[in-house]
Amino acid sequence: MKLPTSARFSTICLHAGQEPDPSTGAIITPIYQTSTYVQDALGQHKGYEYARTQNPTRAALEGNLAAIEGGRAAFAFASGMSAISAITARLHTGDHVIVTDNTYGGTFRLFDKVLTRYGITFSYVDTADLVATEQAFTPETKLVFVETPTNPVLRLTDLAATAALAHARGAALVVDNTFASPVLQRPIEHGADMVVHSTTKYLNGHSDSIGGCVVAVRDEDIEWLRFIQNSAGAILSPFDSFLVLRGTKTLALRMARHSENGLALAEYLRSHPKVTRVYYPGLPDHPQYDLARRQMPDGVGGMLSFEVASFEEARLVLNRFRLMSLAESLGGVETLVCHPASMTHASVPPERRKAIGLSDALIRISAGIEDIDDLKDDLAQAMG
Ligand SMILES: Cc1ncc(COP(=O)(O)O)c(C=O)c1O
């Protein structure tokens, strides 16, 4: 099988990085569950010496991820957090990073509780506001770390404009593309230098693997990521690589359905009398609807949040869901609901949660790919 250079996006998702297995012709890349490789003679091997450094299943996944994000190389890690950690391990004492203010709670915890111990400083900025981003730069700024759409209040950042700001000041733009997936948003096409994912979410898509990846374009980043992946060793296992590779085959199909269901639930909630606010960039009254259409032209995905009157009301609603499961995480084929203030964002101090608009009455939905009428029925009964 040879992937034509003219291949379109969903064909790339399905085939990139994979050739029939050279020893048997198996169409699916096998799980190379080995720690080492026998060498033909001293100094002669097949490109594989030790499985922390190279593994064929992981290499196939990395080739696939690089192709679908439009990068030059990808590196697969044991979790989304270890992927983010691999990027920031390159920073030195005194370096400064601009971060989207309502970034994933675990990212905030890594920056605030771990990296500040090494003398790295962080400014948490509403990167939806380009003037605020511009004002946050210092001569020491090395990275701008953006999440768009954000979790859980679905704010967007203009990637092309932010890339221009960063590059004019010698900083790199890193985009956490977990919420959108490369089907809906390809940050490298907008000027990002690196894209990071929790593959745990949409890329794997079946809620049965924890993993992460970084996709890069510049030689210096690729060199660093290869070095740190091997040096720190937080690699994705062969089995998890196999699972994510299986996941990306159906990514385009799944994302279309996630987006369709996300929009339908957002529209339903907007007209519900007990809902005080809906957060979904695919609704025309979202303040960044125009940017969403430009930056995510094929849909904005399955993530949405809404507010009810109070925390007590949110608790009642959350405890009534039957088909939708109360759980952390997102991006799987099954619909999940969560209470960000006490679950995914519990590590974010209350005053910061307030500043980013994350109220105790907020409920987040990760819309799966079930029949939309079943999801609406469950939502209707849970709202009471
Ligand atoms: C946007 C985002 N980035 C990164 C992570 C971290 O990924 P992982 O849980 O795979 O370490 C998450 C996890 O929820 C996330 O939502």
Put simply, the count of helices is 14
How confident is the prediction overall: mean pLDDT? 96
Judging from the principal axes of the Cα atoms, what is the shape? globular
Please write the string of helix (H) and strand (E) elements. HHEHEHEHEHEHEEHHHEHEHEEHEH
Ligand roster? pyridoxal-5'-phosphate
Percentage of residues in DSSP E strands: 5-15%
Through-space gap between termini:
54 Å
> What is the number of E strands?
12
Largest sheet: 7 strands, mixed
Low-confidence residue ranges: none
Q: Largest sheet, order of strands side by side?
A: 1-7-6-5-4-2-3
Judged by helices, strands and strand pairing, the structural class is: alpha/beta
Helical content stands at 25-40%
Q: Report the radius of gyration as a whole number of Å.
A: 21 Å
